[in-house]
Amino acid sequence: MEHNIPELVAQLTLEEKAGLCSGADFWHTKTVERLGIPTLMVSDGPHGLRTQDPERDDPNHSRKAVCFPAGCSAAASFDPDLARREGAAIGREARAFGVGVVLGPAINIKRSPLCGRNFEYYSEDPVLAGELAAGYINGVQSQGVGTSIKHFAANSQEYRRMSASSDMTERTLREIYLPAFETAVKKSQPWTVMCSYNRVNDVFASENRMLLTDILRTEWNFKGFVMSDWGAVADRVKGVAAGLDLEMPGSGGVNDAKIVAAVKAGTLSEAALDKAVIRILNIVFRAADEAAAPAPELDLKGDHTIAAELAKECAVLLQNRGVLPLKKGSKVVYIGGFAKTPRYQGGGSSHINTIRVDSALEMAESHGRRVSYVEGFPADLDQREEEEFLRAVSAAAEADAAVIFAGLPESFESEGFDRSHMRLPESQNNLIARVAAVQKNTVVVLHTGSPVECPWANDVNAVLCMYLGGEGVGAAADALLWGDANPSGRLPETWPLRLEDTPCYLDFPGDGRHVEYREGVYVGYRWYDARKMPVLWPFGDGLSYTGFVYRNAQLTADEFAEGDSVRVRVSVKNVGMMPGKEVVQLYVADCTGTTGRPPKELRKFVKVKLEPGEEKQVEFTLTAQDLSYYDETLGSWYAAPGEYKILLGHSSRDIHATLSVRFSTPRRRPFVIDENTTIGELSKDDRTAGIIQQVLAQAGNALTGGNAGGSEIASSEAVAQMLDSMPLRGIVNFGGPAAAGMITPLLEILRAAIQ
Length: 755
Hints:
Blueprint: H1 5-11, H2 14-20, E1 42-44, E2 64-65, H3 71-76, H4 80-97, E3 101-103, H5 126-141, E4 146-152, E5 165-167, H6 170-177, H7 179-188, E6 192-195, E7 199-200, E8 203-204, H8 209-219, E9 225-228, H9 236-242, H10 254-265, H11 270-292, H12 300-314, E10 316-320, E11 332-335, E12 353-354, H13 360-366, E13 371-374, H14 386-398, E14 401-407, H15 426-438, E15 442-447, E16 462-465, H16 473-481, E17 514-516, H17 525-530, E18 548-555, E19 559-561, E20 565-574, E21 580-590, E22 601-610, E23 615-623, H18 624-627, E24 629-631, E25 636-638, E26 642-651, E27 654-664, H19 679-684, H20 689-699, H21 716-725, H22 730-735, H23 737-740, H24 743-753
Helix pairs in contact: 2-10, 2-11, 4-5, 4-12, 5-7, 12-16, 13-16, 14-15
């Protein structure tokens, strides 16, 4: 239906315009009945709907809905198509419930494993997070329902999240904390974006013009409206001017009145307010038009089946020394409260009122598995009872295998607070160690939203991470444990050995007012790889019940220039006896000598399904952007000319093929040459290298001879280092009076060379 929205806005009073820029209640925008402006209903997500029951006047009482794998789990699929399928199912439920916009996905970077909301977020890597977010958004919006991608931006902790400032360099912001949002906006155009609570470099996200207008709208061409997180508005008038359109859930008219007063006083232009109203109404009417079409039939049972299927794709087999899959007919004991009452979702605004939850114990019994059960420890407490421990250890000793279902109780991780440590409940660690001591075939199944320390990892046979797999997690665990499905998940985050190893250990969560992102771009695997640090399990890792080999890796060209591209091809073969899926990961390593670049960075990935003996070729296309970093001196992305390595593999630390490509570009970083420019800097630039080498040759021993300081430091390496760091003015100091006259003409020659 056609809507002349500018004409509608022209008919609105100033007070009505201001009113449309805030919520009518917790979940609805305001209407203007005289002009036929409808309301828009939003609902919490992102892994299921927390939609208020229309029969209950309570924002915390939600309708029954299906809980799909949480972000931490969906990310482990490394499969944007899976995210799209999940989004489509949620979109169908949203249509049936009359929801116009789903509040999700949540894609903030996992800076620290302690962030209380990590279960909701995708990854420590922006490429993975962005591709999954785009898939999810496309899925939801394919059903005529919008999304609100969140939380924009740099919201990677819960501690003082409503006031603390995330302080970082522009390069860090551009390379780590913004790219996932950029990918999602450019590939899927979410209907809305939700700004975060926090400040970014001392400016609240809700009034940050650089984020909300300059980057989001001007650079990325975002077309929808920006809403606040619930209660994230600091200065409403500044927010409108910066590009914040909708305040949720509203302030009972207080901030609306401030907008009216500011327009009347001339401190806020009515044109800026009109833009906000137009952007809101574009989406409001779009949602209304979509809602006018017949809604799909609500099929919660069918969606439950989908949730269980997706959970199988998301589980990560972290370790397997041969016990998995369990042999049919073997005598197995299940231990731990999570076997009977699994933890399958996180706490807070994304908590779903589910229709049913599968448990691994229930599913094993329904399939006639030869399984017994001992609680050992409860699912919701860190509680140790010696008699129960002894029962568990005794049962484990008498079984063919013991499967311990462990994880974090909801009280350990939830929206609203961060964890203070990475440990499982002590009762769980203790019992795992005791069971492993008597049963060589001990399997640990983990239900957790983020990494935990595993002091028993070397003592158990297998570890299967289910993350928070949604309400079908029990059915998925059963299928994976007994070989009815093949694990294909990969870690979307590094699992460190201990908290002290993490990149931001000294700076997280800050002093309450500021948190310094001093690790810069070295987040996750970038940090661990740069320091050559051992980890428990690396980014991208995950085992299968089959095996894969990589063959015939090749580039379509050995070099390419700015504006062109090069294709990378590799064949992958399933050499095992079971169908399986391999995630081919492509990393880029800068070998140009550019300082401050991580050893390698994920740039592409694809999940490939292969039958036993089947081989497929996968192909990636690389452009200059895939080689680039954000150069603050240029104010843009830049790839230096020179050599880059293309790494293809199974994880960040399991590379199967390495290729080399040379890149050329006419673009140059700014190079200011003066008397303090070093010989090393001049030698590394191809425009000035030849000139400075001639100068060095003419100077001969004058620069390094008797002034070298003794033969013990006058080795070729020492001389090279000394020359590398010597400023041009050093030629006078070491070359004597004869060299003094060289400086001025040399500077002129060098400056001319870089013009």
